Structures are given as structure tokens and as C-alpha cells.
Amino acid sequence: MKRVGVFVCHCGLNIAGMIDIKQVVERASKHPDVAYAADHKYLCSEPGQALIKDAIRQHNLDAVVVAACSPAMHEVTFKNLMQTAGLNRHQCEIANIREQCSWVHDDSTTATSKAHIAVHQSVEKVKLDEPLDPITVPVTRRVLVIGAGIAGIRAALDVANSGYQVYLVEKTGSIGGRMAQLSETFPTLDCSICILGPLMVEVYRNPNIKLLRLSQVEEVKGYIGNFKVKVRQEPQYVDVTKCNSCGECTKVCPAEVANEFDSGLTWRKAIYIPFAQAVPPAYVLDAKSCLGLLPRACGECKKACDKLGMSCINLDAAPEVHELEVGAIISATGYELYDATKLSEYGFGMYPNVMTSLEFERMLSASGPTSGLIRRPSDGRIPREVVFIQCAGQREPETALPYCSKICCMYTARHAMMFHHKVPDGQAYIFYMDIRAGGKGYEEFVKRCQEEKGLLYLRGRVAKVYEEGDKLLVKGVDTLSGKTVEIRADLVVLAVGMVPSQGSRQLANVLKTSLDANGFFAEAHPKLRPLESPTSGIFLAGAGQAPKDIPDTVAQASGAASKALNLVSNPTLEREPTVARVNDQFCSGCGICIPACPYEALSLNANTKTAEVAEAVCEGCGTCVASCPSGALSLRNMTDLQLLAMITTAVSSR
Amino acid sequence: MQSYLYFPGCSLRTVAKDFDASAKASARALGFELKEMQGWLCCGAVFTNTTENLITQAGPNRILGRAQAEGSTLVTLCAGCYNVLRRTSQQAERSQVKQDQINTFNEERYNGGVSVLHFLEILRDKVGFDKIEQAVKTPLQGLPVGAYYGCLLLRPYREMKLDDPHRPSILEKLLVSLGATAIDYPSRTECCGSYLGVGSPEKVEPLSSGIIQSARSCGAKILAVSCPLCKYNLEVCQSPGTSTNSDFLPVVYFTQLLGLALGLDPEQLELNSQQLHAIHGRVQTAVENVSQQ
Lengths: 654, 293
Fold this sequence. Notes:
The structure holds 2 protein chains of 2 kinds. By secondary structure, chain A is α/β, with parallel strands linked by helices. Chain A folds into 5 domains: 4-131, Rossmann fold, CATH 3.40.50; 142-234 and 320-334 and 501-568, FAD/NAD(P)-binding domain; 248-307, no CATH class; 337-499, FAD/NAD(P)-binding domain (3-Layer(bba) Sandwich), CATH 3.50.50.60; 576-636, Alpha-Beta Plaits, CATH 3.30.70.20. The mean pLDDT of chain A is 95. Chain B is 45% helix and 11% strand. Chain B has a 4-stranded parallel β-sheet, with helices on both faces. A 4-stranded parallel β-sheet of chain B has the order 6-5-7-8, with helices on both faces. In chain B, helix 1 (17-29) packs parallel to helix 12, helix 2 (58-68) crosses helix 3 and helix 5 (119-127) crosses helix 6 (129-135). The chains are: A alpha/beta, B alpha/beta. The A-B interface holds A 344-345, 347, 350, 398-399, 464, 466, 468, 473, 475 and B 157-158, 164, 166-167, 186, 189.
């Protein structure tokens, strides 16, 4: 028979304020198997832990029940303590009497009685806990980075520079992402591509990075340390190694479509270079806009290329599937803009002179559609009166996005300032709800803009935008003066919110990880584990996790890279041994458990014809146990016997 | 003949008999009937939802409780009544606690279940604008009509959900199916001033005349509305002394234009000579032609 010790934590007044600790200790000590029971103000503190350790020695304890906060908080602390006290770490159970008891009840008597039951249940369970050793699995020492915007680039470089191999998967024809589209960056006004370009080149030159452009992750199998990934790469019609970016193919291509890099403000050909600084520096053939590959409709590009003796173009190229093995995955999928046509009050999509901030950004860019001049899309005139609307479609839980995209206050200030520099006699009006400029040098930057002549900040919302002649009538309110405002503007710029990239949901399914209510990748813990997804071995970086600016993205990317390095820098890793087990004598080999397992950890042994658990893959969820009709499957240290003992305790203690 | 349970409301029995008559006549011409509900009473108008005070919501709940005995759909015409009853019906589904309190006061218990529809929704969703287009006998021949929505038909969107609150199109689509030209103008969803006309007419005047000017400057020759109070404010702001009568912009109910296009007698639709004159002579001539046949 085990000698069990029970330790009840006050957690200051968190638990002791509602539960009669003395009574819980007293009643626990009467349990026939409890050799010792005590309490402490903070069991997680050093003296608290010392109390447990000493008691284990003095009272010769075999197992311990800690009645305290949720096991999510301190289970690891106390299990580690078991080891230092010379016991197996699985001889410890946590009875949650805080989150599931003291915090949720307002009657002390009931709460105390419930705490007592919880403690007794844990005693019954720990009695039947068997000592277990961790499962050791080898680690594939390579990293996959999904998305090659600034987050993916930074993460890939950090991992590669530490000497580990990286696969960098990018959906489009070039790395660079949104940052490549930006003209300047706040608050220092550096040219965006000038600071991004060198990193892009570094990625391309780094021998540890294998770049897969026009590629998407199709399938992920395996588990932390040992992922098997299938990446589908669109046909490489243009040979990256041969193409010297001469551009002859583009000249002859007859198919034109909207250029996504310029937010649709310009046209591009079906064969094109994504942008001047594209990496890899090679042309891309967009099969969807091409007049026809199968059957061949045109082929002019190939003729032009062949004529030069280059032969970079292979119109019969086929898609490729790359099978990769990696130990860690970093998801850096980024963002796109909320569909502004849904914001009918602003007339985007109806009126050519209402544009999104990203379109305006492209106009500001020297490489943009107007070579950096600000012009109205309707007639090409230089606008004098420009209205910037912040929070467009944001912080509106009922009709649009409930959240704040964090970066719009800053880039709108920059946009207004750039407009004023380019059109000195112009007038910019900025409608804002409140200015959120939390960041190094941000407040100072916004202040500078607010004080600049020609920039008028109006605190309030715009009710509607209507076309009136060749002007846009903007009706809004200035809540500081309490008056409605009407502005006849030449151009309206909407600071539209950030939404997760298309395909995030599909990728989350493939990665078997979760998204939050707004479709961004969910983190394991919002404060303490912001770089990790809830699925072990998958890390998060950039705006795919939540809206964020470039400094935050870069910081998170380096953080995620360091998390991935933590993992792959060890040849092996240890996993929890509380996994499923098969009793061969009971197993009929029916196979019901195999599809029930969400992790594909179960299979049928060809020789014995019984189910088999891949222990390294099993997450210990227990789904298979519930599905087994003959009771052959059980979960280590969560057996039917243990559950029955706990239930019996709960019903008989009442 | 298909029939819908119908709540007329006070205005339609007094100052807006033309709205009531034209809607009923048009409905018949389209092959359905508006069957007046038994024992209706005042919906409480805009006061109902301006406070959290439950006593103001007793009236509309009583109406819905009575309507329930006769059917599960209730059709309204006046935008004000529509707003009150629609929101009341939605609130009843949302909070059982509130509903229990109201039910202890009212004899007619109501716990949700009646869906309140505007006549426009019947035209759009049950009849279909394409069917209406086919039923048109005397098209409005490009008559430039400004549809005026005001507030109550569309807002709050969470509860009304009739159409896009910023850029609605339901009235325009109806008008186009009648052969009219729908004029898009900035003020079609602005507030007319509502009941402020009683106590502070000076506050209403700029609001209402702003709407008139906006519609006129965009080329509207007539306004189509769905609210007796809006109609009143939009007409009063144009009365002699406020602007010259020569550019008076007539205001009619959309049902009157519907009836006219369906070939009904203008007298039955209670259209006055000024309104008929504004319909440019063009339609009037067309109507005369029909009656001569």
C-alpha cells in the first residue's frame, strides 16, 4: 500500500479566502492511505516546495497529492519536485481547488466540501498511478518555414545562421511579402524595400536555406521533432537557374491581368516578374492568366526566349511534390486586407477615388503605378483635399472586424505626412477614433504629424461618402467640437483592417492546429507562450498570429526561430509517457480505434493482428480508449480502474 | 387568394389613409390580400425603444400577442410601426427574463414566434420584383424618383436586416421594376427630424430641406417614402415661406407609384393633382390612355 502525502495550498487568499483549509487537511489526514497532510500559504514557493520534499523524506511517502491551482499552472513544478525528492515524477496528482473550486463558488461550506472530495479523488487516483519513464524520440534536425514575408525571412535566416537547414515555402513567385509592397516604414521613414532587399538576397545566397517558391504545404504527418511534410510546387515554367530577367518574354506576352503587387492599380502580363527586386530573380508564368498551355494557345514567350538562345521556358513543366522531413515548423503566413467593398458607407468599389491604404501605399512608392506621384484614379489629377479614414471596418463587432489592427494609426500618420510633402498646398484630414501609438518613437512621430501644417486630425467617424460631381462628399462628425463635418474631398483613403491570409484555415487544418475567433493562428498561451501554437513543434510568427507591425513581427520571428532551434538543437526529445496501451489478450483486431485516433498513432500489427500504439505519436487524448469495444485499450495513469475509484469517491463522499 | 395578416397603425387610419388604400389596392392587383389583424392598437411609436423601461414595450408585445392568435407573420407599412414591432419581436427572442416581466403585466402573453415583415419584404421575397415587372400595365416611363428611406426602415441593422443600412437598394429595385428611374442621392438615408417637428420645428427644417435639396440637385422629380412622419416633415419644410412653391418636390408613398404602374385608378390610390402633375404628365397621359380604352 502506498503512503500518500496531501499538501493543500492557500494560494494567498485565492483558495483560503473561500475554502476552509484546516478542515480539508484534517479530513484528508483521516484517509487510511494518507500518511501525512499539511498546508502552506504558497506551495509553489521555495519554502512550500521544501515542505513537500522534507515530508517525503521524514514520512517516507510514496506518492503526493497537491491541492492547488490548475495543473496547467504548476503540474510541471511539482512533478519536477518529485524527481529531486527521489520519487518517480508520475507519483504526483494535482487536485484543482482554485479554478474549479474556490474561484467559482460563493459558499464556503460547499466549496470546502467539494475541495475535500477533489483531494480524496486524487488520493484514490495516485494510489493506482504507476511509475513511468519518459519516451525518448529522435529529432529531425531541420526546420520548415511557411510564408516568406518579413517574418518568414527573419525566422529562416536565424535558423540557417545557427547552422541548421531550413525549407522556406512561399506561395507566390517571390519572397518579400507585404513589406516589399510598402513605400516607407514608420516611424523612421526608411525605404521599405531598401531594408528588406538585403535580407531577401541573404536568403537566396544562404546555403542552408532551400527556397520553394510557388509552393504550398499540402500535408503534414508525424509529430514534434518528426514531421513528414508534403509541399506542392506549381509547375516551374521558367527555369530559375537559367532566367537572367531580360524581360523579352513579357514584351511579347499578349495576356494582361491586374497586378496584385500594385494592389490592382496597374496591369501585368501573364509572364512577369513580381517586382524589380524579386527573389528568386526570375520571371513567373501565371498559368491562370496565360491564354492557354494545354492545348497551347500562344507560346510567344517561349519563342522569344528561345530566340535569344536562353531556353529558360518549359511550357510543359509539371507540378512537383516535395516530401520533406523536419523537426519543427514555423508558420508565418501573414495578412491581407479586409474586403473594403463590404464597407458600403464609404463607397469603395463604387467610386474610383475611394481607395485602400495599400493602394495609396503603392502610389507613394517610387516603383508604384504613378512613380511616387499621388494621383486620383478617376482622372489622374493631383488631389488637393484628401480624407484619411482610420479604423475602417475595425472595432465594429456588429458589422465588421471587432479588433484593432494596431498599425493603422501609424501608417495613416505617415501617409498624411507623405501626402503633405508631395502636395505642399494640399490639405489632409484624418478621421480617428483615438490614436494608438504605443511603440518606440511612435508617439513622437504622430505628434510631429499632428503639428504639421496641412494635416487636420478630426476625432470622430465618417458616416458616409458620396460622389458629388467630381468630388467626394465626406460626411462625418468631429466629436471634440460636437459638430458634424462635411468635406468635399478629391480622394478618400481607407485604413482597412488586417485579416489573416487566405488559406490560413486550410493550413491550420493541415497543421492540425487551431485558429482564434478572428481566424488568426491561436497561440498556446496568450501571454506566456505567444510563439507556440497549441500543437507541439509548430511555432508562430508575424501577422498570421495577430495584427502587428514590422518591429514586432521581426522580434516574434526571431523568437519563433529560437524556439525551433531549442527543439532541433537536441538529437532527441522526451515526451510524456501517459499514452495509450493495448492489452493484446483482449484486442480482437477489429480496427475501430485506428480511424478514431486524430494523430494516426494506431495501426494493426501484421503479425499479431492486434492494435499497436506508436508511443511517440500518441498525445494521450484517450479517444481510442473510448472507442475500443472490448476494453483492450487503456490510457496509462488514467485507467478505467482509476476513473471508477474517483467516481466512487465522489458519489460516496456526499 | 393568398392573404397576409396586416397591422395598419394609427397614422394609416388618419393622416395616411392614402398609404393604406394604395397598398391594399396594389396587393389585390398582385394577387394577395392584406387582412387586418383583430384588436390592434398603437405600437407606441419611437418612444417604445428609446428607454430600457419595460412598460413602454407592453404595447407592441400586446400587439404581437394578439397577432399570434391569427398567424405567424405580421405585415406593416409605416416604417415607424415596422421598426417598433420588428425590434420588439426580436427582443422577445433574446431575453426571456424581460419577456417574463412583460408577460406578468400583459394579458396577452407573448414569447416570440411572430415574424414582422415590411410590405416591401413581401414584394421582394414573396412576390418578387421580376413578377411585379411583368404585372406592370402602365410603366412609369423613366420617371426620376428619389427613394427616401430615412432611419426607421433600416436601422438598427442588427435587428432590422431589411437591407444594407448605408447603401440600401430595395426601394430602387422596386421603382426600376415599375419602369421608373431611381435617383441615387446622398441624403436618402438621413434623418428627416422625426418627432422634433412637434417641439422644435426649427431643428427639423434644415434636416428635411437638406434632404429635399439633395434629392432635387441629383435630379429627382418626386420622392417615394414609406413613413407618414417623414412625408409630413418633407412636405412641411417646403410649405410657402420656407421655399417657393414652384419647385415643390412632391412626396408620395411608394405604394402609390406601385398602384399607378399596376394600372390602378389614381383616385383609388388617393393621389392628388399636384402629385399627379409631378409625375410629369407622362404617366398621367399614359393612365388616361388606359382609362379611355
